């Protein structure tokens, strides 16, 4: 029996899965959370130990890895983690190959999640998809001709930092009006807090719930308040959907993929958000450019399924 | 001796070339202009007759074609011409195969020019380029992994209709502030004429030369006037370079190609235009996204060289 090992290194949550070749259900699957202060060495030791337990004495035929941060996929080397210290230039693929005596491929979570949805999720059968995660930030990954398109620096997919409103608010990236600044949960929450501090009547539902702990107001709170008709929440979500819609329409004009697949917390903001997004994307793209926009189906498991696909591709390449 | 036939069907100007396999100079090359009122049948007969003369009794081993309008490259069928009647759904590849008893591949001029610059021009040795023509309109073509990326409807490359200023002026495409509306020669000239009609002092150099035949004011006139310091011409060219720069920066964030290659009349507008373009593109792209922006070197010959590359690829695939 040929089994592969799939690993998803998140910021504080790591997921492991063991899959048989050709299988569609995990033979074993487990999650482990890092304690505060954990570093790369701690995470590696924890995950390796757990992997050995899951493998139960078997050797994996191949290993695929999703990593939550920049990766040089050509050498399977982690460049760094924005959340966990000690990940600078760690040759994770090489370490895994030596530890488990099996070929390993590492890529960043946006690319790997795209591959997961493309092979096992709502992108099955599509030749070209763009997977976008709209959460704290906004990132994306391309599958072109069924393969991850990484770009010449491994930086492809950064729709979050395309500019759609050049006179818009300033983002941490230094630009104004990029998609992430307008569409992400973190920035929407920031704008809501700033606006409520200026004028508490702008968002009565939000103010009612968060006036004494504004710092806790997050993207989910906005979705809830919007569903209750809070005008500030509705306005911020409308702007989010508009900005992402322009970004998607622009990407459609540039690359003409078959399908856009959207995951992440903000995509659960409700029907009004999706409606504005779809209308805006359709208006931004040329009439001859066809595409659809679907919600991701694998949820938080997309990177783990994509890691499995990376491993299966290694088997194919043998 | 194996020779290939390269054809470039423009609106009113058609170019033909015969190249030996492995050659870097045309064995024969000729241009022919269509008279007003010419239709598809006339153009085909003229070009076929001239091709037979150039081939001088030899049979081409393969035929590559650039067509100035939408093409279904999967079947080498012309969809239509925006300039010449009678091109609706013409199976040009099939007609050529039967006429010359050789395999033929047809694609639109933006894709074929990209291939030309990629294989024979300033994109040689690059794995991923985006070729952009900035002329009457703004169009583009991708080479990814050395091959044309057409997208699922054959519509990829439409950077001219990406939106960079959503509250900007309205384009014929129905949207506001798309790159073509701000950066193309035709629209810059339109805006110059409108502005001069409102206020002739806005562009004294332009007004001096064109006040009695404003309709003749075109993109070239703007470049000339800008080089003489005309404020309206400078302002319109600055906006053109800014809009295209944002479009290029956005494309860099999305696809991370190695090189952007720019052809077309507007790219001859002078150093100030290039300076603004490069600075804006660099500011729009993330710091980790590297690329350069170079002027195309093949000029009007890019589609003909690309057509030769299409034909050579047919030989490789035998």
Radius of gyration of chain A: 20 Å
Which two chains share the most extensive interface? A-B, 44 and 44 residues
Helix-strand topology string of chain A? EEEHEEEHEHEEEHHHHHEHEH
Strand content of chain A: 15-25%
Biggest sheet strand line-up of chain A: 3-2-1-4-7
Within the CATH hierarchy, at the fold level, what is the topology of the largest domain in chain A? Nucleotidyltransferase, domain 5
CATH superfamily of the largest domain in chain A: ATPase, nucleotide binding domain
Tally of alpha and pi helices of chain A: 10
* Helical residue percent band of chain A: 25-40%
Any low-confidence stretches of chain A, pLDDT <50, length ≥5? none
Oligomer: homodimer
SS class of chain A: alpha/beta
CATH architecture of the largest domain in chain A, by name, is 2-Layer Sandwich
Give an overview in words.
Two copies of one chain form a homodimer. Chain A contains ten helices and twelve strands. The first copy, chain A, is α/β, with parallel strands linked by helices and 318 residues long. Chain A has two domains: 3-117 and 300-316, ATPase, nucleotide binding domain (Nucleotidyltransferase, domain 5); 124-296, 2-Layer Sandwich (Nucleotidyltransferase, domain 5). In chain A, the strands form three sheets. The first copy, chain A, has a five-stranded mixed β-sheet with strand order 3-2-1-4-7. The first copy, chain A, has a five-stranded mixed β-sheet with strand order 10-9-8-11-12. A two-stranded antiparallel sheet of chain A has the order 5-6. In chain A, helix 8 (231-255) runs parallel beside helix 9.
């Amino acid at each position: 029996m040929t089994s592969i090992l799939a690993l998803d290194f998140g910021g504080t949550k790591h997921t492991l899965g063991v899959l048989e070749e050709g299988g569609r259900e995990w033979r074993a699957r487990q999650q482990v959370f890092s304690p505060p202060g954990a570093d790369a060495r701690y995470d590696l030791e924890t995950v390796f130990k757990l992997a050995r337990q899951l493998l139960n004495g078997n050797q994996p035929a191949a290993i695929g890895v999703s990593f939550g941060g920049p990766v040089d996929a050509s050498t399977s080397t982690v460049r760094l983690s924005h959340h966990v210290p000690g990940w600078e230039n760690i040759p994770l693929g090489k370490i895994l190959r030596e530890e488990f005596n099996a070929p390993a491929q590492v890529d960043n979570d946006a690319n790997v999640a795209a591959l997961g949805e493309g092979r096992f999720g709502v992108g099955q059968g599509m030749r070209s998809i763009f997977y976008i995660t709209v959460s704290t930030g906004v990132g994306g990954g391309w599958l072109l001709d069924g393969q991850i398109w990484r770009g010449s620096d491994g930086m492809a997919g950064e729709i979050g930092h395309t500019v759609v409103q050049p006179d818009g608010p300033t983002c941490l990236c230094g630009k104004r009006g990029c998609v992430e600044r307008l569409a992400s949960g973190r920035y929407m929450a920031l704008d809501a807090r700033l606006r409520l501090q200026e004028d508490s009547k702008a968002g009565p539902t939000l103010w009612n719930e968060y006036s004494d702990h504004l710092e806790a107001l997050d993207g989910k709170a906005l979705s809830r308040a919007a569903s209750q008709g809070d005008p500030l929440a509705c306005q911020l979500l409308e702007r989010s959907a508009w900005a992402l819609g322009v970004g998607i329409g622009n990407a459609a004009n540039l690359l003409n993929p078959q399908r856009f697949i959207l995951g992440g917390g903000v995509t659960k903001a409700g029907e009004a958000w999706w409606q504005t997004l779809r209308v805006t994307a359709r208006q931004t793209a040329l009439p001859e450019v066809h595409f659809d926009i679907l919600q991701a189906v694998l949820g938080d498991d997309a990177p783990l399924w994509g890691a499995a696909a990376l491993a299966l591709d290694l088997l194919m390449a043998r």
